Amino acid sequence: MEALIPILNKLQDVFNTVGSESIQLPQIVVVGSQSAGKSSVLENLVGRDFLPRGAGIVTRRPLTLQLVYTPPEDKVVQCQSLGMPVPDENEFAIFTHIKNKIYTDFNEIRHEIEAETDRLGGKKNISHEPITLKIYSPKVVTLTLVDLPGLTKVPVEDQPADIETQVRNLIMHYISNPNAIILAITPANVDFSTSEAVKFAKEVDPEGRRTLAVLTKLDLMDRGTDAYDVLCGRIIPVKLGIIGVVNRSQEDIHKKKLIEEALRYESALLQKNYPSIASRNGTPFLAKTLNRLLMHHIRDCLPALKTRINQMVSHFQTLVNSFGEPIEDKGRLLLQIITKFASSYCATIEGTAKNIEVSELCGGARICYIFHETFARALESINPLDTLTTFDILTAIRNATGPRPALFVPEVSFELLVKRQIKRLEDPGLRCVELVHEELQRIIQHCGAQQEFIRFPRLHEKIVDVVTHLLRRRLPETNRMVENLVGIELAYINTKHPDFYEAGLIHKALTGGDYITTTTTNQNQPQHSHNKSQRDISRGKENRSSEESTLGKITSYSRALVQQHLTDGNDDESIVNGDQPSRSMSNTTNSSPTTTAISMVPIGDGTTINARQLSPREQRDCEVIEKLIRCYFLIVRKNIQDSVPKAIMHFLVNYVKDQLQSELVASLYKTATHEHDELLDESGQIAQRRKDAQEMLEALHKGNQIISEVRETHLW
């Protein structure tokens, strides 16, 4: 069991080298008010004067005091293990912040503590950085204690105004460690129930499982009073006990009274005033109790400590791996990063990336959404007849006839108007290209090699530049292709298109009826229907052989309208007879009551059409053109909805996927060696973090090895 405390000291040395506060080691934390006797208790345990003294807060940095029992015959072995020369004295000390120096003069130790305190904390400030002092002596019991600044209420002299808060935060930081034993120092000449040290201990250890109280200055109590009730736990019970001690007075310290003599005085006073409990009090009993408590506490904490170390080993190993190994072959590493990035970029587009985004669509999934949701909705939102009024249609028909009155609906008017509507499909297509381009640019931030980008910021910038330039080069060509797709539709209005002609759209336009749809004959239909089917087929052949061109149908329809005008006897008849139409609203008395009221009276130069009533023929002509425009526009819109995504995939997405790696290699890898050095110039922050993580990992491995040695020796 005695070997557990040196093992704890080794662990503290290991983790102090990396400044880790993530490992909460077992330790004894000394807490008390100013002038409560903390320093005297520690000096009594060591048997030497070595702590700074004075007015105000003298201890302004935590002092980790490691006491190592070292008999004279073990002194040589101990010094050899430390790599230090063997001193003549049997009592010696070392500071962890000073290498290769042994202290045998304890006054010099005091001066070094004062100097090191001032180095970080100045003359008045509090510092959280601990000072570690190891004392090797045949007079001590193996212990590890942490001496903290004394509790204070009011700042004095040049102390900060928040000195109380600083001290409180420092104390709470140490005693909140669940593996810490709290040594609460309280003077016997004050009411124990008002003890600040006990109050602090109860805040973090309400059940008192890890609190040991020490009652100092038993010799300074008022006459006629004693501390029996307090020491026996009748006032405030403390589970680990309450131990009374007698310290040297200020006069004894000035007179340099030896600690051995002070211990003899303490023993005599306890035997005289507290004979029944004298054996359970005093500095020697306190030292043995602390040693026993610490050993049992270490034994209880080691399993959980080993688990915690294993968890941290795994974490820091992952961290070190993420930072990468030191660079040996920069060209090879550069090629690996380029390949990794290109593969990850393509995988993000294809949906095969290892780290799939769950919070939003990205990569290929977002491109699919753009094609089939965003682009499709944009096309569907375009009404075939938007921005096209009856006046526009009628004007186009009249303009297409020239100076002669038309007997038939001119073909040119249909083509002119439908092209105007088809042109409106170009903007959604170009916007679709833009959205896909933006997503391809955004993939750079989502794909792999992110850790390499953090490690090599210059390389990250160059890769982003190369990919951005590649995408920008392909953008104009893709836009031109989309424009060409719309231009192709505008170049030739195919009125023989199967969906426009054979499916009966013309028939619907001319008759106002439903679309003629073809039905598939069931192969298993009864034999008696065979003759009828044959007749239908023959009739279909005859009809197709006698059909005119699509716009020829419109002409035939117009002839029928002329014949109807001849028999109507309305003002339409005047058109056939060559009479001019009425120029005023008052002369249109025979107009149909259902026709739209517009005026054909020219205003100004006679280029506009104004409100008057449409004739039945004009109304029917406009309706025919509207139906034909709608039918043909829907066919073209369907073609554009299908062809634009294909063009974008071919000219932009697939091209970038195929050319990305070769583009990166040509721009980054096939360059001079000094440019490789610039690209792979590590961030200073990453280099430092890797170094810190490697040091921490080494410390954790050492700690694990130390704990494993404890397991092998069956100490726990």
Automatic annotation (TrEMBL):
Location (main, coarse): cytoplasm
Ranges of residues in domain GED: 622-715
Record bears the keyword GTP-binding: yes
Dynamin-type G domain sequence ranges: 22-303
Stretches for region Disordered: 517-554, 567-604
GO molecular function: GTP binding; GTPase activity; lipid binding; microtubule binding
Composition bias, Basic and acidic residues: 533-547
BP GO terms, sorted: endocytosis; intracellular distribution of mitochondria; mitochondrial fission; peroxisome fission
Assigned GO CC terms: cytosol; microtubule; mitochondrial outer membrane
Swiss-Prot/TrEMBL keywords: Cytoplasm, GTP-binding, Hydrolase, Lipid-binding, Membrane, Mitochondrion, Mitochondrion outer membrane, Nucleotide-binding
Chemical reaction(s) catalysed: GTP + H2O = GDP + phosphate + H(+)
E.C. code: 3.6.5.5
Protein name as it appears in the record: dynamin GTPase
Organism listed in the record: Rotaria sordida
